[in-house]
Amino acid sequence: MRYDQRYLSIPHAVRGAAERYGDEPAIIDGDYRCTFDELAHQMVEAVRATIALDVRPGDRVGLCAPNSAEWIIAALGILGAGGVLVPLNTRFKNGELSYILRKSGARALLASSFLDNDYAADLKAADPELPALNRTVSILGPRGAADLDWQEFLHGGEAVSRSQAQDSIDRLAPEDVSDVMFTSGTTGHPKGVVYTHRAMFLHCLAEATTDLFGISENDRILHIVPMFHANSWCLPYTAVMVGADQIFAGANIQPPDICRLIQSEKVTFTGAVPTVWIAIKELCEKEGYDISSLRTIAIGGSAAPRSLQQAYAKNFGVQMSHAWGMTEMTPLGTVTRLKSYMEDWSDERKYDVYSRVGYASVGVDVRIVDDAGAELPWDGESMGELQVRGPWVIASYYDNPESADRFTADGWFRTGDVATIDAEGYVQITDRTKDLIKSGGEWVSSVDVENLIMSHPKVLEAAVIAVPHPKWVERPLACVVPKPGSALEPGEILEFLRPQLARWALPDAVEIIDAVPKTSVGKFDKKVLRERYKNWTP
Amino acid sequence: MRYDQRYLSIPHAVRGAAERYGDEPAIIDGDYRCTFDELAHQMVEAVRATIALDVRPGDRVGLCAPNSAEWIIAALGILGAGGVLVPLNTRFKNGELSYILRKSGARALLASSFLDNDYAADLKAADPELPALNRTVSILGPRGAADLDWQEFLHGGEAVSRSQAQDSIDRLAPEDVSDVMFTSGTTGHPKGVVYTHRAMFLHCLAEATTDLFGISENDRILHIVPMFHANSWCLPYTAVMVGADQIFAGANIQPPDICRLIQSEKVTFTGAVPTVWIAIKELCEKEGYDISSLRTIAIGGSAAPRSLQQAYAKNFGVQMSHAWGMTEMTPLGTVTRLKSYMEDWSDERKYDVYSRVGYASVGVDVRIVDDAGAELPWDGESMGELQVRGPWVIASYYDNPESADRFTADGWFRTGDVATIDAEGYVQITDRTKDLIKSGGEWVSSVDVENLIMSHPKVLEAAVIAVPHPKWVERPLACVVPKPGSALEPGEILEFLRPQLARWALPDAVEIIDAVPKTSVGKFDKKVLRERYKNWTP
Predict the structure, then answer these.
(1) What is the pTM of this model?
(2) Among the four A526, B165, B271, B485, which has the fewest Cβ within 10 Å?
């Protein structure tokens, strides 16, 4: 054996962080605070509890909860037990949740949502379809319909020795699957993205390099993005690896909470979609919050306007920085950072750079290709599909052979994003996958909504497009063709969709049209509709 | 396949760096300068030339040259061709060189030393013993006794296509051996340390994290340590991975050259043993060199005196930072860095921290154990052998079964260093295990006694060794070199030490000698002294 590759896992890294930074704060969640020594202890307790749930190495375990200390402790417990973590979106509708639990064959489910009667009812209803699901734990609040509450779960771990739990952590192999994260794709059901311990470790190590996020022991990270959203850029794991503090603030953290926490906890690093930062800027100006502890703000989801970036730099001394990634990339792909020779450039030129999503992470290769698969030049003008590869870019989906076309014959992942790359390597996403609508940082699959609408008995065909929106950037608009002879009212469609869709995915309005424009090969030609409704207002 | 693990190699990373930082400077060596685009091109040319030498994947290739652009280009060429790089110490004696070429079965040798007639004569004499050695290249200066000079070597690569060279780089597998580096042990023959592409990539990624060396695109690294010495902390590879500039300055770079280069090239990062920095401090004070571009100075080899560290911080605004590692660790193990909560500490307390060699690198586990193998507490006082493990710590030596005792049954590498670890995780190296003197059940640190002796105004250097003793098993003997022109009596040293040392640590005698024998890398070679005094009696 040339090298011992066992120790490439996040749970092992937590132990190292505790040895280096034992007395330093690790987790802050409201009144709850713990040090790295305490976190390492909590992790072992959660590993014991997970093993006691009868989770065997390789068994999938769902985790459905808002950002919280319990989320990261439960996640480390599942990973350390050799289980496969399946993070679940708390805003998934019942059908989606059941689909993922069934698809992943989850053996246990840790969730906060047993508080919600609908959720519990759904799980019970879905039970016959979930033969593998053995145990349920309510990790926040009372037990509800679950088998155990959080304390009962931890208490159960007493049947498993600490040394067995520690052995389990030491036995994790780098190729072992650590996570399956389901993404709501553009078509069909969510697809499972498979992480390994090594891919996660490598990604987080790269994230801690100075030229990417440069996360260090000095950092205090506030989580605004939900954990179930690409693991919140994997920041919870990078933080526990390098000894950074992290602050959890539940679901639906609002701008005043963000301002208050940045000020009181002296947050150095956080990230969110631009709309959040518009609200925070106004609050800071009005209420005088001090957010100068921030060293950078990572912007994901959509582009921050130049004026906003300039206002943060000028008024608060904080540089915003775009980052782009995908769940399939673990997820960090690019970060916008000025190169050393740009320091003397004019503000105008610098913000031309800051308007892009950045250059590739160390370890990640990028290219753009045309429809025929030919590589395009890096001239800042040629637009093509962005393709990526690297040690933390997936090479296949979980049990999903039909998505093999997302990978090229020569081993690149097809992101589905259209981009330019300039001569200096900066990527600009020009046309997010055409059919996706991005509303307040959440993807809405137009195809999914169309398919639902077209399942209505009075509908012939339907196309859903993005229309500009001042607050949410984009909102879905449904263009619906009734079946001949049907008297269809827009309200009927909305009422039909409401129980079946997440709130943000519900179209703002339904336009009744005569026909969906088609391309020469008969595909929906949405750019004609986008053009027609570009000035649409409610 | 879950992940494509092919791209965990330094040659692949060079291509990525060229894509991100193509027009930026990569290498500076006297009048020679090249950008990352040019370096990537040079690497491919060197891969072609190496393949044309008939080097097949897995073949060992010796590289023996002072720090130079040619060194890094040749190294990348060998690695990219799938060859196994065997870096050779230019100061090796002829017998050592032949031993390593024979032991490694080197198929080709690229060396600057063909200029040296003795060297060439030695190689010729050794030839019958080197059946595998097929081709020799003189990489600096005229061809001499070699088959090819540097230009002829590159010219030969024209027989190999660029795409074949590129394929060779793309085919590197992470488990493939990249380097065998022979360490000049203080006993017996040099032992070969085996690196893999993955271990090297992981190590360099860790080295670029903010809490370790934090090497970034902004850095300009000056190499003072020779490349053949643990790959100069692997800094040449970390630099080409992250886009830092690096400055080579040949062999025997002297303090005035160092000052001049730091000032003219605005060097941000460099490292060397403390004696170099004593000379540079005097030069800067006398000649007014501006070295304020430095963000840190890494100190290896031995401890920098507190007064020196304070002078650099106060006079030049540069913080020195100890680092400890071993060739067997690729090599970085610990770096001294203050933790965030120490920022408010008094200078005195901070420099207590700066006096240590630092806390463990992310990914590296450390422990100290007693003679019976029991783990010792981290109390800053318990001394034991320092043991390490991790993904870039070797698990065996190259073809050297007799060194199996360097690894514990539970998978840790025995460093041979004796250390304490304090409650905050900071390691302090107190001695080498073989240099420790065990007198009547008490351990005496030879290094501590040597440092005390060397603080005597009449002493130039001193080495303290164990001599056999019938009652106490071992007793310390001091071998002392007086400063030129000093009349030094052994009794003066003993009187000087008596009030400062525990009774059992006081040497039994002081021998006045002309010089302390040194190894090829300039370390005290105590085995020569031990041999000389093995029958010593009072």
Answers:
(1) 0.86
(2) B485
Task: Tell me the pLDDT tens digit for each residue of A212-252.
Answer: 999 999 999 999 999 988 889 999 999 999 999 999 999 88
**Residue A368 and residue A329 share a domain:** yes
CATH number of domain containing B129: 3.40.50.12780
**Final residue belonging to a domain, choices A160, A177, A195:** A195
Question: In this structure, is residue A445 part of a structural domain?
Answer: yes
- In sequence order, the 6+-apart residues with CB closer than 8 A to the CB of B451 are none
- B242 and A7 in contact by Cβ < 8 A? no
Give rounded-to-5 percent helix, strand, coil for chain B: 35, 25, 40
Taken as a whole, chain A contains a residue count of 538
**Residue of chain A whose alpha carbon sits nearest to that of B328:** A3
Task: Convert B406-417 to b/e letters by CB count within 10 Å (16 or more is b).
Answer: bbeeebbbbbbb
ipTM above 0.90, yes or no: no
Closest of B419, B429, B412 to residue B365, by C-alpha: B412
A181 — contact with chain B (CB < 8 Å)? no
Peptide bond into A255 cis (omega under 30): no
- Say if the Cβ atoms of A365 and B411 lie within 8 Å: no
Q: Is A109 left (phi over 0), alpha (psi -120 to 50) or beta?
A: beta
Q: Domain limits at B448?
A: 437-532
Answer for the pair A133, A146: CB distance below 8 angstroms, yes or no: no
Residue A386 domain flag: no
| Record: contact A217-B359, CB cut-off 8 A | no
> Which of B525, B514, B439 is CA-nearest to residue B477?
B439
Instruction: Extract the tokens encoding B384.
Output: 């034991």
A393-410 pLDDT, tens digit each: 998 899 888 888 899 999
Put simply, the chain A residues between 17 and 76 with a CB less than 8 A from any chain B CB are 19-24
Task: End-to-end CA distance of chain B: give it in Å, rounded.
Answer: 70
Of B337, B396, B424, the CB nearest to A1: B396
Q: In which residue are the tokens 């503000």 written?
A: A347
What backbone torsions phi and psi does residue A213 show, to the nearest 5 degrees?
-85, -20
